[in-house]
Specification:
CATH architecture of the largest domain in chain B: Orthogonal Bundle
Largest sheet of chain A: 6 strands, mixed
Oligomer: heterodimer
Strand content of chain A: 15-25%
Strand order of the largest sheet of chain A: 6-7-8-3-9-10
Order of helices and strands of chain B: HHHHHHHHHHHHHHHH
Number of strands of chain A: 10
Bound molecules: adenosine-5'-triphosphate, magnesium ion
Number of domains of chain B: 2
Structural class of chain A: alpha/beta
Distance between the termini of chain A: 53 Å
Helix content of chain B: over 70%
Number of helices of chain A: 9
CATH superfamily of the largest domain in chain B: MetI-like
Largest sheet of chain B: none
Helix content of chain A: 25-40%
Radius of gyration of chain B: 26 Å
Chain lengths: ~250, ~375
């Protein structure tokens, strides 16, 4: 084992083992086993209410699991605040409804966490922010407020906001489903670019085109269980489970 | 409505006076019911204006003795009360020859309000101005240094007392309220239940009884020989009371904030206090400016309840002024004068809050 901190850690980036979660009586996640290797892009799909959001929100502790283990980048997620903080620094998240801070400008949205959490000097944080705004192609909006942007632009700001924290993993929870159809592409393009650069990504989405283009694996969830997981060609070309077949026929036929 | 308006405009030709006529016809006399209502309102307003004109202006005694006032009683107001009593109303029992000191202190308070109202000063200048201002006020009010004679707190009164009680009351109740509101939403059961008990207990009793308890019961808790002054006890009671009320207002703002804001802050790794100070409070407090100012205004006026423990704020000074046998019976005039002062302060607060609300929300929507 090397002592150098710069050395890449070994083992999977994210590992869920026999993960269980209940909302009161309701068993939302049932014995979830899930592995995401470094650099892997995984698309999660499934019917509404199947527990997709709940699962990825467990990864950065927006939701708490009750049974099983969850490791992120070699750190086990427990009630220990130190571990939670450490994991949140590695994991970026993009929400369906953007959740930008409406009282701050775009630039302030992007620099807030780097300055206060990563303790980056303000000037450096602003340079990083402008760099990522250029990458999502809206540097000219830096001094506007989120409310003055279109939905697609807001979502790209939200992606840039996460990237400014230099995360190792990006979680996306239906990032395009609150957008008007003409804005979906600009957000997906940004995500494809990010995937090409080697980011580890877990993405809940029903954009099957995106899944075919970038996913290494597609995971299908139903009723709190992972029903089927496979490479995209096999998953779409030759689904095994009846529930997967039904789901695919529903979303591909309209 | 718009149609009637336009039609009336056309018919009237639409220039100068006729435009006004058209507006009057369209808005005040458009139907029988409307006409009747207009007439009733006109009658009541005219009657009130007429009464106030004859009582308050034409038949009023502006300058004169209390005997002249008594002669006009029932017919005209006795404004002659004020040239005689204004110093007592404004400064109460503060030594007569030293009353420039509370006068200057009140002016400094008002100056500080104006200074704080300007957004350009919302930086380090603000605390510096307040420390300097309050320091000067303390020196002026107490004296004992710089050749000023010492004046004990028991002799403070009038406008400056009202301003002291409400300024410190609001300034200290506000952070207390924020802590209580956050505590009430805390996941830690002990903190949560402590805040709930405090808020419900304090909110559930009248301020008068709190003031009374503060003046009678605080001393019982204190060790032998230690005494806190009556003014300070009243001030503490007011802060505790206002804190409980404001806490519920602040909590309303916290609840109105979308859950996604908390989640985004968590996901970015902000700590509880970072998220609270930079994301949650700035938004939550903006949402509750109107009810907050409402509470502020109510509290400003409630400071007059300190009469129960014998403090002479401006309202009670006026009350004492008309207890003078010479001027007995001229309460309405005295209260009218003091109400005017209260109104100026409350109206200024209300107007200012409207302006700040517009300014702060300007960026929020497209
Ligand atoms: N806070 C909560 N309390 C109780 N039940 C909840 C809570 N949040 C989610 N659930 C339930 O858990 C189940 C899974 O929810 P989840 O949001 O993970 O589904 P999803 O797969 O993301 O669905 P969608 O596609 O609609 O977003 C749903 O049945 C939902 O009603
Ligand atoms: Mg979901």
């Amino acid at each position: 084992m090397t002592a150098s901190p710069a050395a890449a850690k070994q083992g999977p980036m994210i590992e869920l083992k026999a993960l269980n979660k209940w909302y009161g009586e309701f068993h939302v996640l049932k014995n979830i086993d899930f592995i995401c290797e470094r650099g892997q892009k995984i698309v999660v799909c499934g019917p509404s209410g199947s527990g997709k959001s709940t699962m990825i929100r467990c990864i950065n502790r927006l939701e708490e699991h009750q049974k099983g283990t969850l490791m992120v980048d070699g750190i086990e997620l427990t009630n220990d605040l130190k571990n939670i903080e450490a994991i949140r620094r590695e994991v970026g998240m993009v929400f369906q409804h953007f959740n930008l801070f409406p009282h701050l400008t775009v630039l302030e949205n992007l620099t807030l966490a780097p300055i206060w959490v990563r303790k980056v000097p303000k000037k450096e944080a602003e340079e990083t922010a402008m760099h990522f705004l250029k990458r999502v192609r809206i540097p000219e909006q830096a001094n506007k407020y989120p409310g003055q942007l279109s939905g697609g632009q807001q979502q790209r700001v939200a992606i840039a906001r996460s990237l400014c924290m230099k995360p190792k993993i990006m979680l996306f929870d239906e990032p395009t489903s609150a957008l008007d159809p003409e804005m979906v592409k600009e957000v997906l393009d940004t995500m494809v670019e990010l995937a090409r650069e080697g980011m580890t990504m877990i993405c809940v989405t029903h954009e099957m085109g995106f899944a075919k283009a970038v996913a290494d694996r597609v995971v299908f969830m139903d009723k709190g269980e992972i029903v089927e997981a496979n490479e995209p060609e096999a998953f779409f070309g030759n689904p095994q489970n009846e529930r997967t077949k039904l789901f695919l026929s529903q979303i591909l036929n309209h | 409505m718009a149609n009637a308006n336009a039609a009336a405009m056309d018919a009237a030709g639409g220039i100068g006076e006729s435009k006004l006529m058209a507006w009057v016809r369209a808005n005040l006399f458009s139907s029988w019911a409307n006409t009747a209502l207009t007439l009733v309102v006109f009658y009541v307003v005219a009657k009130a204006v007429f009464f106030f004109g004859s009582w308050g202006i034409f038949n009023a005694v502006w300058i004169g003795t209390s005997a002249e006032c008594r002669a006009a009683k029932g017919v005209g107001a006795c404004w002659a009360l004020f040239p005689e009593k204004w110093r007592f109303i404004l400064f109460a029992t503060y030594p007569f020859d030293e009353q420039w000191r509370p006068a200057l202190s009140s002016a400094i308070f008002i100056g500080l309000y104006f200074f704080s109202a300007m957004r350009a000063n919302w930086n380090l200048r603000l605390p510096i101005a307040w420390i300097a201002g309050l320091g000067t006020i303390s020196v002026l009010m107490w004296g004992g240094v710089l050749g000023l004679s010492f004046v004990p707190q028991e002799r403070w009164g009038g406008l400056v007392l009202t301003l002291i009680l409400s300024t410190f009351g609001l300034a200290l109740a506000f952070p207390l309220a924020i802590l209580l509101a956050l505590g009430r939403r805390s996941h830690m059961p002990v903190i949560k239940s402590m805040c709930v008990v405090y808020i419900e207990l304090i909110r559930g009793v009248p301020l008068i009884s709190l003031l009374f308890m503060a003046s009678v019961m605080f001393p019982l808790f204190l060790p032998e020989g230690v005494s806190i002054d009556k003014l300070l006890r009243a001030q503490i009671a007011i802060i505790m009371f206002a804190g409980a009320y404001l806490a519920e207002v602040v909590r309303g703002g916290l609840q109105a904030l979308p859950k996604g804001q908390y989640e985004a802050a968590d996901a970015l790794g902000l700590s509880y206090w970072q998220a609270t100070m930079m994301i949650v409070l700035p938004q939550a407090l903006r949402l509750v400016i109107p009810p907050m100012v409402n509470t502020f205004i109510g509290l400003f006026k409630d400071t007059s309840l300190v009469l129960i423990i014998g403090l002479l704020d401006i309202l009670n000074a006026a009350k004492v002024a008309v207890a003078d046998p010479q001027w007995r019976g001229f309460g309405p005039e005295a209260y009218f004068g003091v109400s005017l002062i209260y109104f100026v302060f409350c109206f200024a607060m209300s107007k200012y809050s409207q302006r700040i609300e517009v300014e702060l929300n300007r960026n929020k929507h497209r």
